[in-house]
Amino acid sequence: MEKQEKPKNKKLIKSGQNFLGILNDIKRRPEDAARELEVSLDEINSILSGKKELSADIVAKATKIWPVNARDFYVIHDDCPQGIKIMRSEESKQSSRIMERAGYSYYEYRDTAMSKIAPFRPEWIMELCFVDDDDPKNKLVQWNNGHFLHQFTYFIGEVNFYYIDSDGGKKVAVMNTGDSMYITPFVSHSFASRNGAKQPGLILALTYGNKITGDTQQELSTLSNLGQEFALDFSTIEKATSVLIKYFREISSLSLDEISKRTDIPTNKIIEFESGKTIPSNIDLQNLAKALTANLRDLLPNDK
């Protein structure tokens, strides 16, 4: 009876091809790489052929002896290879988390279909706060300070949209199903359901970054002061790692406790990551990337 070949791991094959590209760029043959990385030629060939995973130890060694960045070794994982991604209602419900304001439940957040390769972060948000009037100064309304994301919002049900106008005055827009709005970054705003509605109001918020992200962001960080207004703070490895983690957590609308729950990383450790006091291990970064629906390389800064 003939043995059936195991199906090839496309992810490992792509990683191996990427590794070969790096070796070609720095003019190393497989035997040169094996000698300089202090591993066997068989291991290098297994990585190149897609039979073995490229280890974090080899990447760490390579970045010490070659003019390459760690993120160069991690290929983008396309989680939407067929061009379509579907999230069912039950799966969305499993991501539910309650956000409190002023000590009481204010919003319920749920994930919606999103991809690691897309810049958009759509969110399902239910307004748990009910108001009796359309007064923009209603004391039940809890305002945020704005965020560094553009936001397009589609309304379902009876929802009040509160915002600050250009003169600093508080305003309210009475919204209903089918209405929509757009706000620029850093516009202070809030939402609430109106009393009398059969059920709490709901918004679908599509947010996308004002800051440049991904490879372009990383490349701008190397251009001294030229890209400062477009990029996050990548002045040191510690700062770069911390701002990337915080950036992706905030655009995913995940609290520290929620990201801790999803990654099994203690909250105090995540705080250390975001403050730049501690650099996460490769395993921690992999867990964070998965929880944030991001590619691992997106959390890896360029080495400086």
From TrEMBL:
HTH cro/C1-type domain location: 245-299
Organism from which the protein derives: marine metagenome
GO cellular component terms given for this protein: cytosol
Keyword DNA-binding (UniProt): yes
Keywords: DNA-binding
Keyword Transferase: no
Molecular function as annotated in GO: DNA binding; DNA-binding transcription factor activity
InterPro entries xrefs: Cro/C1-type_HTH (IPR001387), Lambda_DNA-bd_dom_sf (IPR010982), RmlC-like_jellyroll (IPR014710), TransReg_Diox_bact_type (IPR050807)
Entries under SUPFAM superfamilies matching the protein: lambda repressor-like DNA-binding domains
SMART domains linked to this entry: HTH_XRE
Stated name of the protein: HTH cro/C1-type domain-containing protein
